[in-house]
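Tokens in:
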């Protein structure tokens, strides 16, 4: 029914307090289709896959890129 777009799940949580995060991850696995089952979802035919608009360099850590 979710795949037919008849229902839209609403999940509430807090990533800071780790409330609802496991439920969200379980819902992603259980309710969303696997990328291989979506027709035409090959990376090779998508053109630009991601656009990096900012990269922050820190001496202590690895570069952090924002997409």
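Residues out:
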């Amino acid at each position: 029914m979710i795949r037919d777009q008849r229902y839209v799940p609403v999940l509430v949580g807090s990533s800071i307090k780790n409330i609802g995060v496991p439920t969200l991850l379980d819902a992603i696995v259980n309710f969303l289709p696997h990328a291989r089952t979506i027709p035409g979802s090959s990376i090779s035919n998508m053109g630009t896959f991601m656009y990096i608009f900012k990269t922050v360099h820190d001496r202590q850590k690895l570069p952090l890129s924002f997409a």
